[in-house]
Amino acid sequence: MLTGRFPSAPSSDRVRPDVAVVGAGPIGLAIAWRCAARGLRVAVHDPAPGSGASSVAAGMLSPVAEAYFGERQLTALLVASAERWPAFAAELTEATGVGIGYRTEGTLMVGLTGDDLAEARRLWAYQQGLGLPVTPLRPSELRDREPALAPRVRGGALAPTDHQVDPRLLVPALRTAAQRAGVVLVPQPVRQLSDLDAGVTVVAAGCGAAALTGLPVRPVKGQILRLRAPDGLAPGFRHVIRGYADGEHVYLVPRDDGEVVLGATVEERSDTTVTAGAVQRLLRAGVDLLPELAEYDLVEAVAGLRPGTPDNAPILGPLPDRPDVLAATGHHRHGIVLTPITADLIADLVLGGGPDPLLTPLRADRFGPTGAVVGGPEPTMEGDPWS
Ligand code: GLY
After folding, report:
1. Residue nearest atom 3 of ligand 1, based on CA coordinates
2. Mean pLDDT, all residues of the chain
3. Quick one: which atom of ligand 1 is closest to the CA of 60?
4. For the range 256-260, what are the long-range contacts, defined as Cβ-Cβ under 8 Å and sequence gap of 24 or more?
5. Of 3-17, 65-79, 247-261, 342-356, minimum mean pLDDT range
6. Does residue 73 have a pLDDT over 70?
7. In the chain, at which end, N or C, are there fewer CB atoms within 10 A of the end residue's CB?
8. Of 187, 202, 165, 168, whose CA–CA distance to 50 is shortest?
């Protein structure tokens, strides 16, 4: 489809970039880095790099714990991207010399009450049915792994391959890597695509992609808290913890520097107001699971807007009426884990490679005028390991 976009080597024109990327979040920066590393001249346009969803994101790399009913195709993409994370993290650290908080202790999924555990077990059975690594733990095994868990916690399971990274370290690292590879950052907003003059335009603007492209990308609000362990100590737990607590679903992400991220709400809203009720629910669930959190400092309460699509999967590929404009948006709850695969697939498209089969169900033209997925509720994915 895009073969021949760059039939010859990139031109020597110093003004017109080969690629203009709209959006300097992790997705846009990683695409820019990958394209520049392959010899293209790249400009990234964003008045406030890293100020979108990634600025509040927890950074869980969770293809297993976030393998939900009805999202089998998306799960395949998450797994494929998570597999690229170890090499991606190593490459980025080597390119920049800075750490990005990449940690591999794994994720514990726990249920506080009997009802919570029953709900969690239904999901674990589904995840195991997909062949994903989920290991149920006896209560004693759970406490051996995390003694700080509340004695009330009824049971849990380990997802050993679900890791984490710190998005607030990731974005500056990507920015450094991209700039070292020759990417130019343009700190101006892009109000319409006709503002840009480049061989290819990549729209990686999160929720902002809707106004630029007309694609059905909607904001999905998430309120999230940051706490800090007292006395400069590390948090009293090592795993990412995903808990069901009296019907509330929360996650707790410990950082080396003492920070704990506690999130998050999922709301069909477009404001970024922090509400007392959400803070109360998050804190109640967090403290019920890990009582020591009650002694931590509460240092931040913020809200961000995830870019959601009608089928919760990202949109990766050319606009139906503009083959020179590629969408890389709609990553919803999975922008950080999907960063490496998005960057690789979009860079391949820019360079005119044949579309990867992984892209087939993620095309921009899969949505009809109403935003419904054309051809059914769940797109098919060639190469889907479970089809
Ligand atoms: N992936 C975590 C969230 O969206 O809250």
Report:
1. 333
2. 92
3. 1
4. 256/101, 256/103, 258/228, 258/229, 258/232, 258/233, 258/234, 259/226, 259/227, 259/228, 259/235, 259/299, 260/226, 260/227, 260/228, 260/229, 260/235, 260/293, 260/296
5. 3-17
6. yes
7. C
8. 168
pLDDT tens for residues 183-193?
Answer: 999 999 999 99
Tell me the β-bridge partners of 155: 111
With the C-alpha atoms ordered 123, 125, 127, 132, is the resulting torsion angle positive or negative? positive
**What confidence tier does 355 reach under pLDDT thresholds 50, 70, 90?**
confident
Which structural domains are found in the chain, ordered by start?
A: 1-106+164-215+309-387 (3.50.50.60), 109-160+219-307 (3.30.9.10)
| 154-182 average pLDDT score | 98
Asked if residue 45 has its Cβ within 6 Å of ligand 1, the reply is: no
Report the atom number in ligand 1 closest to the C-alpha of 66.
1
> How confident is the model over 63-72, as pLDDT tens digits?
999 999 999 9
Q: Measured in angstroms, how far is the CA atom of residue 11 from the centroid of ligand 1?
A: 41
**Ligand 1 site, residue 337, Cβ cutoff 6 A:** no
Mutate to test the pocket of ligand 1, among 54, 252, 305, 306 (most ligand atoms within 8 A of CB): 306
Going by alpha carbons, the residue nearest to atom 5 of ligand 1 is 264
Ligand 1 atom with the smallest distance to the CA of 333 is 4
